[in-house]
Amino acid sequence: MMMAQEQAILKGREQFDRMVAMVRRASEQGREIHQVEKDLWQGVLQLGLVLLEGFVQGQGTGDLGPTLEQEGRTLHRLDEPHGRRYVSVFGELPPIRRHVYGTRETQKHEVVPLDARLNLPEGDFSYLLQEWDQALCVQGSYAESAASVQRVLGLGQSVRSLEQMTGSMAQSVEAFRAAQPPPPAKDEGAILVLTADCKGVPMRREAEEAAGKEPGGRRRKGQKANKKRMAAVGGVYTVDPFVRRADDVVDEVMREAAREGRPVPQGKQLRAELTRQIDGREVNGKDRIFAWFQEQAERRNPAGSEPSKPVVCVMDGERALWKRLSACFVGVVCILDLFHVLERLWQAAHCFCPEGSDQARAFVTERLRRLLQGQAGRVIGGLRQMATKRKLRGPKRRQLESAVAYLANNRRFMRYDQYLAAGYPIGSGVAEGACRHLVKDRMEQTGMRWRTPGAQAMLDLRAVYLNDQWERFNADRVERECNRLYPHREAVQSQWSLAA
After folding, report:
1. Domain limits of the chain?
2. What is d(CA 254, CA 360) in angstroms, rounded to the nearest whole number?
């Protein structure tokens, strides 16, 4: 095996010498730098593949003798070495030849010493290649990711193989999340903020639904080209108080001029959950998000901690979200997202003023200021009086009633004067942003349709990526998979040392 390794290293030196010679010729010929750069990159990939092959050959085949003791059982070495595929970032290695231990050829190969020593992955693709592949897949389509890898590394991978890789990697997310410690107390803000929203994911039509089409593939009356399943999106972070007056917020919102000195959210974590089957029963995605909120609150604001953080929840007016919050938490400060309120004020303004007019802007500005001053009841009553005095009828009347009903139903969550005085956030920008960049930007690209398992796997991995945990997650996954695949690894390493 040492001879094979030396031959591979010699080939690597020859490859390096060819690269050096190419650079010298390029200098003499006056070639353009990007052409030389491209040739060097191809040479680096070839050099890496040769040297990686040499490393593997230097390990031998894992022959630890005719028998191997494993957990009180005697395993026998099978007659012939078995080959396995391994695709690295440099390219595909020649089949790795390994000795296998078991009871007989047709039974499960119980111990493969070389696999354990090298910590080979369960599949054909190296851990590094998987990490790079999926870092692309969580940002763009599978087809685009495969094309990018092909262009940079010269590796051809199918969309199906990348989809399967996503599903496999995502199985490690739950354990990784559970093992993460809370952020250090010194890095946390003084207020714990929870925020949630929902965003639709376009789903593939199931076979039985597709079968309901008219002859020729036309949809029946009422059938949609695609359907969406709502993903519950949650965000948790801490932030320091930011005390403001009503006029400060009006300036920010209406003039889009953010105040200086705004505290930065700390330890922000996002996730998204689809309603799906888990262990044979359907679990609602919203329930998963609020159970996570509970777990985060207990870890980041434990009972008896000094000082205890106020817990604030900022959401829109969806009843299902508020009901789950009240079932999970006591003493949480409930805040209706100001930007959803602002939408209703504009909706009301356009019942009385032309769209885009200065009158409409003044209408909204004045009522927004009064809401922020704690006058929600007066604003709601004033809108109702205007409808009566102006004798609104038809669509405009229904439009105003819709806006007023939204404000009235959520009035208890609109104590903005108290929230501003305490320095609490009053906008659910984190949840709105998460709906966009966690869900929409990846899941709703042109022509995309998902099945539930694949969609949830992608949401899990994308959340890990956006939470700036990608490298830690991959290191954790490799360690967990090594422990699962090779529980006997230490024993193999010991016997390997004795055999050597």
Report:
1. 59-180+469-500, 185-439
2. 12
